[in-house]
């Protein structure tokens, strides 16, 4: 090698720049065309350091076996293999020239991207620290001092490692609230109030239907019934059934009030009860059955009943809550379907759905209570068997359909995928369940205002702290 060639090699920077287009796999035709079309705009430079010791001879040649040395523009080594398409490598030695194995801080290659026009003007310092490559360890985001220096300088640098400042939008308070409370479910008390009004109108429709049906009850023998004809009549069965009904209703109400999302559960139950009362008002009015219990005393019928008489009947039934135990249910004809069975079934389904899963004894107790209430109702001839079967079927199915709709977000929109939107109460359901996504979490709390809870918590904490200090003084 002549003197000119030696001077040229000495003036060449002591590292080689490596510009990979693809690495690690053979590109497809589409990928190669896309790569070649963008090579004029963007390329990537990877710096390989040779600072670590070599345990086996010949390892350094394996790293560069796919590359050929080029002497034009001091670009170093260029790859001609298919796996590294037109790759330029510049390899430099660190402090120890004998250490030929290439390494970097995190991997064997440290990379950055720049345009080919900028690459020619890139100056790579020859002094390299032992911690890793200078280019690899350059920060992506500038420090505060670098930002100040950048703002003071008017000329922008064209170095490929120039930092880019990213402006992040500020987080609003509403976004922070959603972030820290992702499962926040709105109570929406106005919708609960509307469901209560809907329940009231449904109960009013049922009592009005009974007041009208009482005049049309046929005065004939009870209809044949396979169950009633084969069991012994028990006059006390109706009272026991209504006591069990009240117990089931109170238990379900306690479970709902202890639930953290009590307002949502209440409007669900009230909406379903309202729909059931409207159904019941319709079914008992279109088909009137004779009395199932011949000994049951009903008010005598009038042929010239006025609107005022109907109003008095409705008020009498409402004041008694639809129960016979208080002596105000003195009108007959409310058979299809059974209101007692409907209420007992709703009580069990509510406890099963919204009480803790581990309360298995409570679930079974509620089930047996409802079952016994229905059995005693049949023993007392309070309803025909068909009334009980229809009441259970309609109540359980409408409960399961409603909760299936509430737990699936796709069923809250109309379309060919959702045939349940043909139900008459589906639009009301969607209005009530718009902001509820998925099943309600089983969380429980006392139905006490937050102000009282906060005051009680602070008082208890202060009392506990005072007692702790007094105990320490006493022991001292």
Rounded Rg: 42 Å
Approximately how much beta-strand content do the residues carry?
Answer: 5-15%
Beginning-to-end CA distance, first to last residue: 93 Å
Which stretches are low in confidence, meaning pLDDT under 50 for 5 or more residues running? 13-19, 21-25, 33-64, 66-144, 153-157, 171-182
Explain what you see:
With 476 residues, this protein is α+β, with helices and mostly antiparallel strands. It folds into two domains: 3-142, no CATH class; 189-432, no CATH class. It is built from 15 helices and seven strands. The protein has helices spanning 3-11, 29-38, 59-63, 116-120, 144-152, 173-180, 189-213, 237-258, 262-286, 307-319, 339-354, 360-379, 385-407, 426-432, 450-475; strands spanning 16-19, 43-52, 67-70, 76-79, 88-93, 101-103, 110-114. Helix 7 runs parallel beside helix 9 (262-286), helix 11 (339-354) packs antiparallel against helix 12 and helix 11 packs parallel to helix 13. Mean pLDDT is 74; it is low at 13-19, 21-25, 33-64, 66-144, 153-157 and 171-182.
